[in-house]
Design brief:
This protein has about 220 residues and is of the alpha/beta class. It has eight helices and nine strands.
C-alpha cells in the first residue's frame, strides 16, 4: 500500500503571515493546501508571488462563505482568482460543484481540478452523495471531494462506502467533519481515498482536523 497522502493546511488573515506559515509548513509537509480565502484583501495580482514562494505540490483553495470558506469578496472575483490559479498551473485547484454549475473554468494541462461538495449540518444519504460525485465528474473533475458533518458514528460508514465503491478510474476525497468523524481523517487514505487533510500549529480549516505531527506518528506506528 502506498504512503498515505496528507495535505497540510496553510492559512492566515494577511499575506505576510501567510508567507511565513507557508515557509514553515513546507519544511514538514509533502503536500500543502493553500487556503487563500482567509487572506484579507486578496487580489489576483498576489497569486504570482504566491506561486513563486510555493515549492511543494499544492492545492489552491479559495473557498466561498456558502461552503464554509472565508472569502468576503464578490463571487465573480473569487472565480477569477481560481481561474488565475489554474493559469499559473498550481498542481491542484479546488472549486465547489455549486460554483462550477454557474461558472465555466478554462482548464490547463497539468492542473488537476478538485470539484468539491461540503455539508456542515449532516451526512446526506449514500445515494445523494454518489450523485454528487457523478455530477462532479460530468463537469470535468479530476478528483471529486465530499466533506460532510458526522452527527453519529454510523455516518462514517457512508464515507467509507463512497471510497470503497469508487470506480477504478476515479479519485475521491471523502471525509467526515466533526469529532464523530475524526476516524475518517485517519482511515480514508488507507482505504483508497486520495488524501486526508491535517493542520500545523492548531490552524485547522475544518472541524475535527488532526495535526500533521500526530497523524504522521500514527501512520509510522502502523508501518506506513
Amino acid at each position: 500500500m502506498p504512503k498515505p497522502r496528507i495535505a497540510t493546511v496553510v492559512r492566515a488573515d494577511n499575506l505576510k503571515d501567510f508567507f511565513i506559515g507557508l515557509a514553515e509548513t513546507q519544511r514538514v509537509a509533502d503536500l500543502i493546501e493553500l487556503r487563500v480565502d482567509y487572506i484579507q484583501g486578496l487580489q489576483v495580482e498576489h497569486l504570482q508571488e504566491l506561486k513563486a514562494k510555493t515549492t511543494k505540490p499544492a492545492i489552491f483553495t479559495c473557498r466561498g462563505k456558502a461552503e464554509g470558506g472565508n472569502f468576503f469578496g464578490a463571487e465573480k472575483q473569487r472565480v477569477a482568482i481560481i481561474q488565475k490559479a489554474i493559469d499559473l498551473k498550481f498542481p491542484y485547484v479546488d472549486i465547489e460543484l455549486a460554483a462550477l454549475r454557474k461558472y465555466k473554468l478554462n482548464k490547463k494541462r497539468g492542473v488537476k481540478l478538485i470539484v468539491s461538495y461540503h455539508n456542515f449540518q449532516k451526512t446526506p444519504k449514500y445515494d445523494f452523495l454518489e450523485k454528487i460525485i457523478n455530477q462532479a465528474y460530468k463537469l470535468g473533475a479530476d478528483i471529486a471531494k465530499v466533506a460532510v458533518l458526522a452527527n453519529k458514528p454510523e455516518d462514517n460508514k457512508t464515507i467509507f462506502q463512497l471510497i470503497l465503491n469508487k470506480k477504478p478510474n476515479q479519485e475521491i476525497i471523502a471525509l467526515a467533519m466533526g469529532e464523530k468523524g475524526r476516524i475518517t481523517r485517519l482511515l480514508a487514505p488507507l482505504l483508497g481515498g486520495f488524501l486526508t487533510f491535517a493542520a500545523v500549529g492548531g490552524k485547522t480549516s475544518a472541524p475535527g482536523q488532526l495535526d500533521i505531527k500526530g497523524l504522521k506518528a500514527i501512520y509510522q506506528a502502523m508501518n506506513f
